[in-house]
Design a protein that fits this description.
Helices cover about 35% and strands about 10% of the residues. It is mainly alpha-helical. A two-stranded antiparallel ribbon has the order 1-2. α1 (about 20-35) packs parallel to α5.
Length: about 200
């Protein structure tokens, strides 16, 4: 009986098939294919599956000093430890040897699934779709629990920009909005916005 473990093609056997520039291109492509990774801040490379990061949890408060003899006041700052969990994304693309033998085009170029990887990352982080169990709640779940959700109405401009709109909800939490992520269909809705005179906004 043949031992299957000895017949598996390992990483060393394939080291010459994936040149370093291609590997870098895949990683860069995943970043460009994910809306979340494009908007996020890049952290240092992790050396293990988990990493603990100190996050500022309480901001300092400053005070005016009343004249030359005024007393300077103290303030408190607080940090919290957040744990980052790295999870693997993988897919197997079976390609018959006969297809590889007959192929007159770049098979490797066809099977780089950077768009699929980006879609999986965005779905997990934003909506919790197939999210690893080690990850925290998705953005949507967190917003819903915090009551920071705006129900869609026919007045898209107000839903986004008015008092009580999506951007106002973010600002109420003490943050400035520096980007927006939405379904691609939202582009048409925004282009279609008109004022009371029918002029595009």
């Amino acid at each position: 009986m043949t031992n299957m473990a000895t017949n598996i093609v390992n990483r060393t056997d394939l080291s010459g098939l994936i040149p370093e520039p291609v590997t870098r291109e895949i990683i860069q492509g995943v970043t460009e294919g994910s809306a979340v990774l494009q908007m996020g801040r890049r952290l240092p490379n992790m050396t293990s599956k988990t990493q603990t990061m100190n996050v500022l949890d309480m901001l300092p408060t400053a005070y005016f000093v009343n004249g030359d003899t005024g007393m300077k006041q103290t303030t408190k700052m607080k940090w919290d430890k957040k744990k980052i969990y790295a999870e693997e994304i993988a897919v197997i693309v079976p390609i018959p040897e006969a297809v590889l033998d007959d192929a007159d085009y770049d098979i490797w170029g066809e099977v780089r699934l950077v768009e699929a990887f980006g879609k999986v990352i965005d779905g997990a982080i934003l909506f919790g779709t197939n999210k690893p169990t080690s990850w925290r709640d998705s953005v949507l779940e967190t917003c819903t629990k915090a009551g920071s959700v705006v129900a869609a109405t026919p007045y898209i401009y107000d839903d986004l920009l008015a008092e009580g709109g999506v951007i106002a909800k973010v600002e109420e939490s003490g943050y400035l909005v520096n980007g927006i992520m939405s379904a691609i269909q939202m582009r048409a809705k925004l282009r279609g916005l008109k004022d009371l005179n029918g002029n595009p906004i």
